[in-house]
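Appendix B. One record, verbatim.
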Amino acid sequence: MCHYSIKHRSDKHHSGGFRRQQGAALLMSMVFLMILTLLSVSAMKNSMLETKIAANHQHKMLSFQSQESAFARLLGPDPEVSRPLTIAAAPTMNSNYFVSSGVTNQPDLSADVRMDFVEKSTPGQYKYSGYGLNIVTLKFNADAFGKVDNSGAKTHGRMQVALIRD
């Protein structure tokens, strides 16, 4: 019967290499941890920026809606708007012409309307629905300025309005 013996390296040699590997693993894990931390912080900042962009866009849309609501009121059956009566007169400002109290977690909306006299037509100068009526038309430029309270969101729109008078 033959016996073979295998010569082992000393434990000191193995333990020294093992310690060096532990140090490298610690260093690599710290580098990876720092990279992950930087990526997480960057993603969080990006998310906060996108949230601000979305909120600003929502306020801009609310401001536009308040401006359009002022125009809708102006074109309604009883506009109750102050307006200049001659071309030489200064434009008339109607502050808070449209006001909407915000619902829960929504800001208040409002819009001002400025009326500027453009022209007084001669009787029958304009046709309405294809018919030339013997009436006088007063034309105005109406400017609506929508805004959202506690926000910098503002919009401006203009339309021509014709008031028909007998």
